[in-house]
Each structure stands twice: as structure tokens, then as C-alpha cells.
Specification:
Layout (H helix, E strand, L loop, with lengths): L5 H8 L3 H15 L2 H14 L4 H13 L3 H12 L5 H24 L22
């Protein structure tokens, strides 16, 4: 079946914050490129500052870069924008978790290993046992 407005919908969707956040996340995962993903997410936020998904993903990048205060600020802003109780619970859990992690790191002067410390995902899997 033909959908005459399909191509228009695809083009208009590409400029939304949600679409840009998905592209940034895929780029980060495929290329392990946190800087590029962060740039895309900041652009998405400029275009769509009321998109909680952009703020959540930007917060997740900040966590990977151990920029906890920035991550907490993103989650706080996103919490004000969510539309469902489930989204609020999810973001609250992220915010509380990272707040605890940041406090422990400061108190014990430790730096957790993050995805940005790993050069490729193969480093995450244990070596085969012989």
C-alpha cells in the first residue's frame, strides 16, 4: 500500500530531538565516539529543549565522561518534562544512582571505569579460558 505522506513524515521527523537523540546514541555505540554523540545531543537540545529523551541521553554521556554534576542537571531538567510516571521513575532512579556514585567517588577519591575508558567493546568480554 502506498503512503503518499510517508516521505514528508520521514523528513520532518529527522529534525526532532528524539530522532537526533537516537542517531547520537547509535553513533556512540557504533563508533564509541562520545564527543560526536555529545555534539549531536547538544544540537538536538538547542532544537528541542523540551525533549526529555535528549536530556536523558545527554546525561548518560555525561556519566560516561564522569561529568556527574552535568548529568544530574540533565536528569533534573528531564524530570520536569516527562509525561508518564514510568519515565519519572526511570529518570529518578538514574539521578539517585549517579548522585550516590558521585558522592562515593568524592568521599573515597576514586574514579570509576566508564565506557569512555574502554577503547572497544571487545575489552568488556572475558578472555576465553583454555
Amino acid at each position: 500500500k502506498e503512503f503518499p505522506n510517508h516521505s514528508k513524515a520521514v523528513v520532518s521527523t529527522q529534525s526532532t530531538g528524539t530522532y537526533m537523540a537516537h542517531v547520537a546514541t547509535l553513533k556512540m555505540m557504533a563508533e564509541n565516539n562520545f564527543e560526536s554523540a555529545m555534539t549531536l545531543l547538544k544540537e538536538a537540545y538547542e532544537k528541542d529543549p523540551k525533549c526529555d529523551f535528549v536530556l536523558e541521553n545527554l546525561g548518560m554521556i555525561y556519566i560516561q565522561k564522569q561529568m556527574y554534576d552535568d548529568a544530574l542537571e540533565c536528569f533534573k531538567k528531564a524530570l520536569d518534562l516527562v509525561k508518564t510516571e514510568a519515565e519519572a521513575a526511570h529518570l529518578s532512579a538514574l539521578r539517585i544512582g549517579i548522585q550516590c556514585q558521585a558522592e562515593v567517588c568524592k568521599e573515597y577519591d576514586v574514579k570509576p571505569v566508564s565506557m569512555s575508558d574502554i577503547q572497544d567493546f571487545s575489552q568488556m568480554t572475558p578472555a576465553p579460558q583454555e
